[in-house]
Amino acid sequence: MSPKKKKQPNKAQRRETRLRKAREWAPAYKGAHIVRVYRKKYGVDPGCAIRELEEIGAITPEKAVNLRAGETALLEQLRSERERKQEQAFHDRWPNSDDMNDGIAPTTTSRKKLTVCGFCTRTSSGSVD
């Protein structure tokens, strides 16, 4: 007979265990980057790390507000950088495409109205319907 497996803790139990361990760890930490180290040590995202460190009293509420603002600004910067890179990759891949139809060729050329995309049609004169 095989031994029974131990039941895995649920999300709330893991959080409670993490907070209990962090209450012991945080006062002993002397570095400057407590949020970064907490994130890596306990495997949580920055927002969760800031919230939990504030909850256990390792950082002040004012510092938590500043850290949240900095994290929001960083995420916005990363998002805009990712979008810029995607646009650049598209234009590098399709250099002859114009912005009017985003490089999508008409589906048929024999009719008077040409379907450019699923949202609009063009007549042979170039006007959009």
Beta-strand content bin: under 5%
State Rg: 27 Å
As an assembly, this protein is: single chain
Going by helix content, strand content and strand pairing, the class is mainly alpha
Shape: flat
Number of helices: 4
User: Which percent range fits the helix content?
Assistant: 55-70%
Q: What is the CA–CA distance across the termini?
A: 73 Å
The domain tally reads 2
Largest sheet: 2 strands, antiparallel
Order of helices and strands: HHHHEE
Instruction: Give the mean pLDDT.
Output: 82
Low-pLDDT parts are none
In total, how many beta strands? 2
The largest beta-sheet arranges its strands as 1-2
Please describe the structure with a list of short key phrases separated by commas or semicolons.
129 residues; mainly alpha
